[in-house]
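Request from the bench team (R.T.):
"We need a structural guess for the complex before ordering more NDP. Sequence and SMILES attached. Just send the tokens back."

Command: build protein-NDP structure.
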Amino acid sequence: MAAPKVFIDGEAGTTGLQIYERLVGRTDIELLSIDPARRKDTDARAELLNAADVAILCLPDDASREAVGLVTNPDTRIIDASTAFRTAEGWTYGFHELEPGHAKVVAASKRVSNPGCYPTGAVALIRPLVQAGLLPADYPITVNAISGYSGGGKGMIAEFEDASAPNHTTVPYRLYGLGLNHKHVPEMQKYGALLTKPIFEPAVGRYAQGMLVQVPLHLELLSGAPSLGDLQKTLADHYRGCAFVEVASIEEAKSLGTLDPEGLNGTNRMKLFVFGSDTSGQARLVALLDNLGKGASGAAVQSMNLMLGLPETTGL
Ligand SMILES: NC(=O)C1=CN([C@@H]2O[C@H](COP(=O)(O)OP(=O)(O)OC[C@H]3O[C@@H](n4cnc5c(N)ncnc54)[C@H](OP(=O)(O)O)[C@@H]3O)[C@@H](O)[C@H]2O)C=CC1
Ligand SMILES: CC(=O)N[C@@H](CCC(=O)OP(=O)(O)O)C(=O)O
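Reply to R.T.: structure attached below.
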């Protein structure tokens, strides 16, 4: 039987290139590549999109919407890495670990939206606690996060790395999203199962890749005033058996004095930590992941594997 065909639209971009590198050596799929000179040519893209069994879109939102509109082959299945369809009807959210059985839903879907990098961490921390009844759905959640500059794609990479770029910067760290209207907020609220819009405080640092996503909580405001151990156990129970999501034990978390955002770079893994103090009644939940791994390209390959009936860990 012929190997299924996969086309990456936006293969030359940051996310696209990382997916290409994960797929190029594989013999269980056939990678369709566009002539670099025609990579923005609508006809050339439409031809390959419709020839693919799975098309992975690694494009800005508008170009993603355009690409979806170019697909007329009912057998072409789409994984979109942009923000365009993450909360849209008819699309499956590609966070396999969302709840038991969700990987099967992804496997059967024709349209899968790849989760945002920050929401992957935030949703992973928040949703199981809401579903377990510990975290009230109307809790005033704050999500604080730092990402490496590759999170902003080719444009931001040039800004930090290319001294000749018009917007070149040498700042070590900066806050952004100050108007509290970051594009990831609706996604965090929807898949975090929250009734209240979270306050999202992102920052970018002068390093390429890797992120930390934090959710601070006051334990006495949670249902039943749980301990740090109760929160850790709820998360650990939820992610037990997941190949790519791990929950640190309370002992491991207590043994750490610091946490490095680059710790899982180059992997499709995410690790969750419950820090804090039962004595002070405060928790600091943290997700560690690679924005280009589990936060983008790794997650897209995980979905592609499932959609093609392959083990989700293939090539990851
Ligand atoms: N970087 C990250 O950590 C993450 C990114 N994403 C999402 O993935 C998507 C891609 O982001 P990223 O890879 O970072 O961005 P990049 O800017 O690095 O790459 C986007 C690519 O798309 C190309 N492109 C733009 N318009 C078109 C078009 N009309 N037709 C064909 N190609 C086009 C660009 O071309 P050109 O080279 O000419 O600019 C570029 O190569 C975005 O939607 C982003 O939100 C998701 C999670 C994390
Ligand atoms: C550092 C930085 O700028 N990060 C990007 C997020 C990455 C991205 O492009 O968003 P998705 O994960 O939804 O695709 C931002 O905040 O806009």
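Two things stood out. The domain at 5-115+296-307 is CATH 3.40.50.720 (Rossmann fold). DSSP finds ten helices and 13 strands in the chain.
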